[in-house]
TrEMBL record:
Organism: Cupriavidus oxalaticus
Every Major facilitator superfamily (MFS) profile domain range: 32-438
Topological relation to the membrane, as annotated: Multi-pass membrane protein
InterPro entries, A to Z: MFS, MFS_dom, MFS_trans_sf
Molecular function via GO: transmembrane transporter activity
Descriptive protein name: MFS transporter
Subcellular locations according to the entry: Membrane
GO CC annotations on file: membrane
Name of the gene encoding the protein in the UniProt record: pht
Length: 448
């Protein structure tokens, strides 16, 4: 198996006309995105289905809010530990083998979670799920840089990340339907059936991956003609020379990497708090029906889906990244601060959460154009995974912190106040520590 190779490894050719280039990128998009979209839908559903299972499994396992927070966070302990090694290993084994392995193992881990019988068993199952999933997201982000230049990457990344919002829209109603109608199936409790039914599709898609991802980059793409490969190499080659270079040690010494990671940490803390605690918050306002909780929980993802592509398109058109991301973080921070004025009222609280969560979701595609533009050479695989891992720290700590706050105070409002402060810090740090000129090098190459 050859390692992943960007299109720049192919012999370049003279630039082609805009129409031919657009047709080439449409062909690549339709070849890659449907599979990646489906995989990330399952990835998101299998990661957050515990938030709905908790509504019923808590009494069966004797699971307190604090213990649930630990269980939700245990996933990210495994994820963080293995994310960078997985992304580096993908460079040696290729995307097909890596993504096939990840899908099969995370599906198996999800199904196995149905058999936990104590909080400690839940912690172990979630940790193993994190180990299984490690490397999928940063691997895909890296893989997309081999196929799409910076001026198209915002929209392409938004199409990929829309799958997460799509999953969020459907995970609640789907979980409710499974738990309401499949309780007792094969002798399983409703929450056990949820893990089994939602884990099996990932294993099936893992088998599909072996046939769908029949190459590890443009140079090995059997479905591209030699002329198309040369055209792609020529277009992508414009930005290769604009990137930074250096080894992994230089990467670890670069303070801006940690600032970028802080921005992602704030975004991830927002999306994970909503994903893992919104059903509990809705239930705490007196809504006891699982189906209605599921439908209400879709609202942030509906609005997020509408805003993600529009923001990414605006960012691509202007080739501006920092203010698009920071603006979203500040909107989210303001929304969560306003939640303090909505105590005890379901509709205003849900409205604030919806706007805040949608702003963070909209920021994600634009944010993930920043690391590839800033990194380059040997730094890209490790750098993208490191930034993703730094975000995983928020995902590791935020469920624990929110659970502890909920247990000690009885509500979640203080948690959202702290989240608002973190988002504001992330926005300001990104603007101050990452000058636009560092990203404009790659973008200016795309303009030529």
């Amino acid at each position: 198996m050859q390692p992943l190779a960007p299109a720049s490894a192919i012999s370049s050719a003279p630039p082609q006309d805009a129409g031919s280039l657009a047709a080439l990128y449409r062909k690549i998009t339709w070849r890659l995105l449907p599979f990646l979209f489906a995989a990330y839908v399952l990835n998101t559903i299998d990661r957050i289905n515990i938030s709905f299972a908790k509504l019923r499994m808590a009494s069966d396992l004797g699971l307190s809010d604090a213990a649930y927070g630990i269980g939700a966070a245990a996933f990210f302990a495994g994820y963080i530990l293995f994310e960078v090694p997985s992304n580096l290993y993908m460079q040696k084994t290729g995307a097909r083998r890596t993504i096939t392995r990840i899908l099969l193992l995370w599906g198996l881990a999800t199904v196995a979670t149905s058999q936990v019988n104590s909080p400690e068993a839940l912690y172990a199952a979630r940790f193993l799920l994190g180990v299984a999933e490690a490397g999928f997201f940063p691997g895909v982000i890296l893989y997309l840089t081999y196929w799409f230049p910076a001026q198209r990457r915002g929209r392409i990344t938004s199409l990929f990340l829309m799958s997460g919002a799509f999953a969020g829209m459907n995970s609640g109603p789907l979980a409710a339907a499974i738990m309401l109608h499949l309780g007792g199936w094969l002798g399983l409790r409703d929450w056990q059936a949820l893990f089994v039914v939602e884990g099996l599709p990932a294993m099936v898609l893992g088998l599909v991956a072996w046939h769908c991802l029949d190459d590890d980059g443009p140079a090995q793409a059997k479905w591209l003609t030699p002329a198309e490969k040369a055209m792609l190499a020529s277009d992508l080659g414009k930005e290769v020379h604009a990137r930074r270079h250096g080894g992994i040690l230089a990467l670890l010494k670069d303070p801006r990497i940690y600032v970028i990671g802080l921005a992602f940490l704030s975004i991830y803390a927002c999306t994970n708090t909503i994903a893992y605690w919104m059903p509990t918050l809705i239930q705490g306002f007196g809504e006891a029906h699982v189906a209605r909780i599921g439908w209400i929980s879709t609202l942030p993802y509906v609005l997020g889906l509408l805003t993600m592509y529009l923001l990414a398109r605006s960012s691509d058109r202007r080739l501006e990244r920092r203010w698009h991301v920071a603006g979203c973080l500040l909107v989210a921070a303001a929304s969560f601060l306003l939640m303090g004025l909505t105590r005890g009222e379901l509709a205003p609280a849900v409205a604030c959460m919806t706007v805040g969560a949608a702003a963070c979701l909209a920021a994600l595609p634009v944010f993930w154009t920043i690391p590839p533009a800033y990194l380059g050479g040997r730094q890209a695989p490790a750098g993208i995974a490191l930034i993703s891992s730094l975000g995983g720290v928020a995902a590791l700590l935020s469920p624990i912190a929110v659970g502890a706050i909920k247990t000690r105070t009885g509500d979640l409002y203080l948690a959202f106040d702290l989240l608002a402060a973190l988002l504001a810090v992330g926005a300001v740090a990104l603007l101050l520590a990452l000058p636009a000129r560092l990203l404009e090098r790659a973008d200016s190459a795309e303009r030529r």
